[in-house]
Amino acid sequence: MDCPSEEQMIRMKLDGLEPIKSLDFDIPDRKLTVYHVGNDQEIFQRLDSLKLNTSLIFSGPIDGLEKMDINAGERKTLWIVLIINFSFFLIEMLAGLLSRSMGLVADSLDMLADSIVYGLALMAVGGTMVRKKKVARFAGFFQIILAIFGFLEVIRRFAGFEKMPDFKTMIYVSIAALLANVLCLYLLQQRKSKEAHMQASLIFTSNDIIINSGVIVAGLLVKWLDSSYPDLIIGGIVFIIVARGAYRILQLAK
User: Fold this and answer.
1) Which of 30, 77, 117, 178 could form a disulfide with 212 if both were Cys (CB 3.0 to 4.6 A apart)?
2) Which of 195, 188, 64, 187 lies closest to 125, judged by CA?
């Protein structure tokens, strides 16, 4: 096991085995801990069929309640960051429309994309792969459609005359979103999880902090240059990032 894609393969292979209570992936050390009840023979046979050089390191009794508490902690963290991101999706979308800022609108869709990623991660914590794939497929296509419409709107505004966006709203709302993402990053790092779905959540949140900073800079440039172009440029860039993220979500549905 040496990459997140192999984690997905393993999850799919073990999906549906009732004795399994939890899976704990340690990708850097190429280890998988399976918490289960009863015999481990069928579990090992399924893993061995993947031809990943599976070998048994240890098998023995362990306190299952401790692991269930870990899963409960992951779920709680992911629910918190999901609620924060979805709330700021609504806030930034409304603020973007009212302030005529494509940067805020694009950033709001990026927050929505992250909410979807966190939702998928929640399903990965003890969830079934079939359900995860269905949601990933719907979410991916939905995000791509929104990103395309957003990018077309940026092109339309470049070609025509539009009122200047409210740079103050851009800056204040983006600062609030930046602080929210810093909080999300802190909460995710506190879990110290090495599993792929948690690592992916960390990467997306780190990227969000960069995007928030970009919108803040664009707001300052709108004021200093007395031009809407910085807002349109950052909006176009973020829409491309959203589309790329949607493509990665669709990859999970394969």
Assistant:
1) 178
2) 195
Residues in the chain: 254
243 touches 143 (CB < 8 A): yes
pLDDT tens-place string over residues 6-23: 665 676 667 666 677 667
Q: Which amino acid belongs to residue 108? A: S
CA distance 86 to 112: 6
Q: Is the pTM of this model over 0.70?
A: no
Domain boundaries, the chain: 4-62, 66-252
Q: Is 31 helix (H, G, I), strand (E, B) or coil?
A: strand
Residues 77 and 71: their CA atoms lie apart, in Å, by 10
Query: For 4-62, which CATH class?
Result: alpha beta
Residues 6+ apart with CB under 8 A from 253: 133, 134, 136, 137, 140
Under CATH, which architecture does the 66-252 domain have? Up-down Bundle (1.20)
Letter for the amino acid at 184?
Answer: C
Same fold, 4-62 and 66-252: no
Token pair of 6, please? 């192999």
Question: Comparing 53-57, 113-117, 124-128, 221-225, which segment has the lowest mean pLDDT?
Answer: 124-128
Residue 197: count other Cβ atoms within 10 Å of its Cβ.
Answer: 25
Contact (CB, 8 A) for 249 and 139: yes
Q: Which residues contact residue 210 at a Cβ distance below 8 angstroms, ignoring those fewer than 6 apart? A: none
SS3 35: strand
